[in-house]
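Hi P.,

Sorry for the delay on this. The queue was packed all week, but I finally got your sequence through. Input first:
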Amino acid sequence: MSTLLRLLVAAVLLTAAAGGAVLYRITRRTKGSTFDSNGVRLHYTIEGESEGDGEREPVVLLHGFAVNADINWRLPGITRELAKEFTVISMDHRGHGLSGKPDDARMYGMEMVDDVLRLLDHLGIEKAHVVGYSLGGVVTLKLAATRPERLLTASSLGMGWERIENSAFMAAAADIEADLRSGRGIGPLSAYGGDGTEKPGLAGTMLMKFVTRYLADGAALAAVVGGIPELTVTEEDLRGIPVPMCSIVGSRDPLRGGVEALEGLVPEITVTVLDGASHMSAPLRPQLLHDLRSFLRWNRGRPQDLHEAKRDRQPI
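Then the structure:
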């Protein structure tokens, strides 16, 4: 058997195994509650609520594109581990999972940021740690730039920043929308990292093609993509973020450069690069959980007014 054929077989087997896990978490969901967010029903779960051990700070988890809260957070064990110390609230974005799926791009964009604020209002929470992966990181960055008063911290994992005029994703957005609406499916959005970046592997590409073609609502995902331009932030926005930030990315993630760019822009940020991890494998790495939890622990109980009380940051 040739080396190329062996690699192809290995990729198919890996995709089948990963696809099985994804399919399980799509069809066997953890049922929670729903609330109305400007006419769209959104699904969320709450775990780790205070049980006589003092008030726990809330952590809101926002998943990536075309998956759901269980795949992104529960499957790797992140939900379970964080719930030992925090009140963990996991929400399915509109257009995803058990949440409503409008197919109009006007129902996305800033509405996805407002969904987080409405969830906090619905639960009577003034401030929370917000953690987003990939698409969830886009929402988290916009939230930190526009409504930092509702955040304790912001963590943008597997997602950074690039100038909109240099964005390969923005240039390809119309084609991505067309492929999704036609039912052809697409590869990982992280593939649109621009020239010179490492592209997703064959297994990850096949898996995302399968999910977006057969398991997701293509019209709703196309509308999500159509709303992303509203979520862009400027260099000035980033420089003005007043809350502590954390960003973790794989060394093989095409979006790594954007994450590293945050380091010179956001006033208070900790950046970690996971050696050998890709965009799709990073959430499965124990180091991602370790470093995220260390960041949240260090900022637990932090004085709310950063202008009155400023601490030296402890490195992760």
